[in-house]
Structures are given as C-alpha cells and as structure tokens.
Specification:
- This protein is of the alpha+beta class.
- The protein has a domain of about 160 residues.
- Helices cover about 55% and strands about 5% of the residues.
- It contains 9 helices and 4 strands.
- The chain has a 4-stranded mixed β-sheet.
- α2 packs across α3.
C-alpha cells in the first residue's frame, strides 16, 4: 500500500507509516479491544529524523523492517512480472487474432479463387458441350452431304455408262465410215475418178446458205498454196469460205481471218459465226455436197463433234480427202 502523507510504499495492513509515522484507522476484529493512540504510537517505530540538509536520517532498522522491505520489493517484482505476463498475453492474443484474421482472409480468397476456377471450368465444359453439339450438327450435315454426293455419283455413273455406250456406238460408226473411206482411198489410188464418183454417190446435196450455218473446224495444216495476204489461209480456201484473199482482216475489225475462224467469230461480219446446232446434229457423220455451179461442187464432212471438214472440190476430184489428217489418221 502507499502512504497518503509521504507517498511511500509500505506493507499492506500496516497501522502506521514507517517513514512519516502517519497512523491509519483500520477495522478491528469482533471482540478486539480498541487500541489507544498512545499504545499504537508506542508500538510504532519513531519517525526518521531529518538532518540539517533536510534529508532523512536513516536509523538502524530492525530486522522486521528489512524483511518488510524485501516483501515490498518482491511484491513490486511480482506486480511488474504480472504486468509483463498480461502484456505478453495481450500481444500474443492480438498476434493470434491477426493471424486468424489473415488466415481467414487467405482462406476466403482461396474459396473465392476456387469458386472462380469452378465457374471457369463450368463455362469451359459448357463451351465444349456447345462445340460438341456444333460438331455433331456439322457431322450430320456432312453425312447428309455425303449421301447426296453418293446419289449424285450414282447418277453421274449412270450418265457415264450411257455416254460410254454412245461413244462406243459413235466409234463403231466412225470405224465403219473410216473403213468406207479406207476403201475409197484404195480406190482413189487406182483412179481419182473413183473418189469423185464415191463422193457424189455418198454425198447429200446442201445449199450454200445452209453450209454457212455449220461450224467450221480448224484449218488442216496441209492446206498449202499461195497466201497473198499472209493471214495463214491459202487464197483458194478463202475463195471457198468467202473471205478476201487480198485482206488478212476481211471485216476490218482488228482480228485476222484465221484468228476469228479459230475462235468461232465471223471473219466476214460482226459477232460470232451463226451456227445451227440442230442442222449440225442432223448431218453428223454425213458427207455434204455444196453445189456452187453446174460444174463445181465443194464436199464437206460433218464429224461427230458437229464440225465441218473440207474434203475438196469436183475440180480436183476431191483431192483434199486423200491428204486430210482427219482421214489419214
């Protein structure tokens, strides 16, 4: 306890201060006789006298006073130790609470991260499911397309078979005609007049205006002769097809007569050559005789491709028939 007069610490339960002599009033136990001030003063040690400088003169203390001082110091150490323990417990509590709060925050963050990761995985699974559905739809479409292609392939196969059959028939017709021409060639080597008679016998008369509606085949390489305008077409053949042998570009449209014939354009007028495909189909595989005058006729052959090939004229006993690569091959 602390003396209220001098402010020094004295043992708890003391009746008076050991330093200044202040007497404390205490409760007495039941049955205890009241203590007089004189007896109390007599039992208390005398106050410590002060020296000339005002400082207290420390007398020789009895053994009980030293033990009391030691007890007071021990209690002081106990109090500070208790404060230190309480402070340590308080600091440890704050640290533990802080750690728990930090751990809880980290745990909450992990839970949030886990939720986000789970949501991302769910979204990824949903996206994969959508992709699978799209792939399944595409696969079904591909199966349907494949079935359509199979049907188309079967139809194309049938067309190919039919075309092969038609080609075989055409080849047979051409073979028969080639045989006839071979026979005609053999006869022509004996006498040119035989070929003339053959052409006239097999040929079908046709008007010049109808011949102009049949597409002209490319010019044979063996068409030799004078080429005055240097357009690649001999003068004699230009006379037959109606172009000017003195002009490389008869219709003066910027393109030579030979280029226009090869590209299907009309060399003597604007646009393309007028073609009658129905007429060409009608005369396929036939020899046509274009009668120019009573003494002159031009012979044409309509191939399976619908094009007309020049065989020659009555003036040369249809000599071109014997030299054309279409026949010699």
């Amino acid at each position: 306890m602390i003396c209220s007069q001098c402010g020094r610490e004295i043992p708890d339960g003391s009746l008076s201060c050991n330093y200044c002599g202040k007497i404390f009033v205490t409760k007495r136990a039941p049955g205890e006789l009241p203590v007089s001030r004189e007896s109390l003063v007599a039992t208390q040690p005398a106050p410590i006298p002060r020296g000339s400088g005002g400082s207290l003169v420390q007398p020789n203390r009895p053994q009980s006073v030293d033990s009391v001082a030691k007890a007071v110091a021990f209690r002081r150490y106990q109090r500070w130790f208790f404060y230190l323990v309480i402070t340590a417990i308080f600091v440890a509590g704050i640290f533990y609470i802080t750690k728990i709060s930090s751990d809880n925050s980290a745990l909450v963050a992990k839970i949030n991260d886990g939720d986000m990761a789970l949501k991302a995985q769910k979204d990824a699974i949903e996206a994969r499911d959508n992709q699978i559905k799209v792939k399944e739809t595409q696969l079904q479409d591909a199966k349907n397309s494949f079935q359509d292609v199979q049907v188309s392939l079967q139809a194309a196969n049938k067309l190919l078979v039919d075309a092969n059959a038609a080609n075989e028939k055409s080849i047979k017709d051409i073979t028969n005609l080639q045989d006839a021409v071979s026979a005609a060639q053999a006869m022509a080597t004996t006498s040119l007049s035989v070929s003339r008679n053959l052409i006239q016998e097999l040929g079908i008369s046709i008007a010049t205006k109808e011949v102009a509606l049949l597409p002209l085949a490319s010019l044979p390489e063996q068409m030799n002769g004078l080429d005055t305008d240097k357009d690649g077409i001999p003068d004699w053949f230009e006379t037959i097809i109606g172009t000017d042998p003195l002009l490389a570009d008869t219709d003066k449209d910027g393109y030579s007569d030979l280029d226009e014939i090869r590209k299907g354009f009309n060399p003597i007028g604007p646009g393309k050559i007028p073609v009658d495909l129905a007429l060409a189909n009608k005369y396929k595989g036939k020899i046509l005789l274009e009668k120019v005058s009573s003494k002159l006729s031009y012979a044409w052959y309509i191939g399976q491709n619908g094009l007309r090939y020049y065989l020659g004229s009555s003036a040369d006993n249809y000599q071109n028939l014997l030299t054309s690569t279409y026949w010699t091959k």
